[in-house]
From TrEMBL:
Stored InterPro entries: AT5G49610-like_b-prop, F-box-like_dom_sf
Leader peptide range in chain numbering: none
Phylogenetic lineage: Eukaryota, Viridiplantae, Streptophyta, Embryophyta, Tracheophyta
Domain F-box protein AT5G49610-like beta-propeller span(s) in chain numbering: 93-353
Descriptive protein name: F-box protein AT5G49610-like beta-propeller domain-containing protein
Pfam families, per database record: Beta-prop_AT5G49610-like
Organism: Aegilops tauschii subsp. strangulata
Length: 364
């Protein structure tokens, strides 16, 4: 009989696409609550920290398309999220976070912040100070906590003046302006070889820092601390050749910065730890044999597994193997097959998309 109590119960339904459509069918009273715009905002806000992995945006031979990965009745139809750009070879996807996608429109020197669920689009001009001739910028998008319509964009790249420096700037939708550039020196042994952000790994957010991988003269991790608005560089624990192995930054077991290194069928999970003297270093936490974990016969595969990306909110790594595309939780070693490998090649680009989908009741 208490309308407020019923609303509090319904807002705690699982954040799956079928939850609200099922509640909508119960009775007229429930229908009125779950279809109210204010309730839908509360529902999305309540579950902002535990959204499901709805699927991936896949960039391959054909134009970018959404590939759902949930099982029925939570499977979002592929056509629900049509990609907003028709012209190919005019953009670079920089990643997804908090239900938003960041796209670099390199011909226009603009960024596009796109909300696939609502269809909202925001175009931003790239601020001066970034090199756009010898290297390419990268970046990350994130929503302000508790306010779904506010967002920030963190842009990183090589300095347009000194290519040996990394620079960063932050855009706030509150002010509509970019912050002043911050910079850090990029380690280099050979001044003729540039160190730059590796575009096959999207940014990863751990705590209140964003991380990118660096390649070229130096292989390492570029960190942008959102609190201090500062850049720093972290070395990696192993020698990395991105042509023969794959990597990603992850959230380590128990929290903190982690690094996943995959060579052939062997995965190494490292954690950045600080000792009692305040000295930080990498510690090998776990080694996993993928062929044993996923019951693969490595002699049957012509191509080794590859890391596709990291879904932050679900803390799972997406892996391509010759028997399928999997999501793997390396703390629990739980895994699930998402896609068939015969339809999706290892050299495709995959962008995990996590969000609370409340768009329609016809999903049932």
């Amino acid at each position: 009989e208490d309308e407020d109590l019923l609303s509090e119960i319904l807002v705690r339904l699982p954040p799956l696409p079928s939850s609200l459509p099922r509640a909508f069918l119960v009775c007229e009273r429930w229908r009125g609550i779950v279809s109210d715009a204010r309730f839908l905002r509360r529902f999305r806000l309540h579950h902002r920290r535990n959204p499901p992995l709805l699927g991936c945006f896949v960039q391959g031979i054909s134009p970018v398309h959404f590939e759902p990965t949930l099982d029925a009745p939570n499977r979002v139809p592929q056509a629900r999220f049509p990609f907003p750009i028709d012209a190919v070879h005019t953009y670079v996807i920089l990643g997804c976070r908090h239900g938003l996608m960041l796209i670099f429109l390199w011909r226009r020197n603009q960024l596009l912040v796109w909300d696939p669920i609502t269809g909202d689009r925001h175009h931003l001009d790239v601020p001066p100070g970034f090199d756009n001739e010898e290297t390419m910028i990268s970046g990350a998008v994130l929503r302000a906590a508790g306010v779904p319509h506010r967002f920030q964009v963190v842009l990183v790249g090589n300095s347009g003046i000194h290519h040996s420096q990394a620079v960063a700037s932050v855009y706030s939708s509150d002010t509509g302006v970019w912050s002043n550039l911050v910079s850090t020196l990029l380690p280099a042994n050979d001044p003729d070889v540039l160190t730059m952000v590796y575009h096959d790994m999207c940014s990863v957010m751990v705590g209140n820092s964003l991380y990118w991988f660096l390649i070229g003269n130096f292989c390492g991790i570029l960190e942008f601390n959102l609190d201090r608005q500062s850049l720093s560089v972290i070395h990696v624990p192993v020698d990395v050749d991105v042509n023969t192995c794959s990597i990603t930054v992850i959230r380590a077991e128990g929290g903190g910065l982690g690094f996943l290194f995959l060579s052939d069928y062997c995965v190494q999970a490292w954690k950045w730890k600080t000792d009692c003297d305040g000295v930080a270093s990498w510690v090998l936490e776990r080694t996993v044999a993928l062929d044993k974990l996923l019951s693969m016969n490595s002699e049957e595969g012509s191509q080794s597994p590859r890391i596709l990306g990291f879904a932050e909110d679900n803390n799972v790594v997406l892996l391509w193997t010759f028997i399928g595309v999997f999501k793997v939780q390396f703390e629990s070693l739980q895994f699930k097959k998402l896609l068939e490998s015969y339809r999706f090649y290892c050299w495709f680009h995959y962008y995990p998309f996590e969000g609370v989908y409340t768009a329609d009741a016809g999903i049932m």
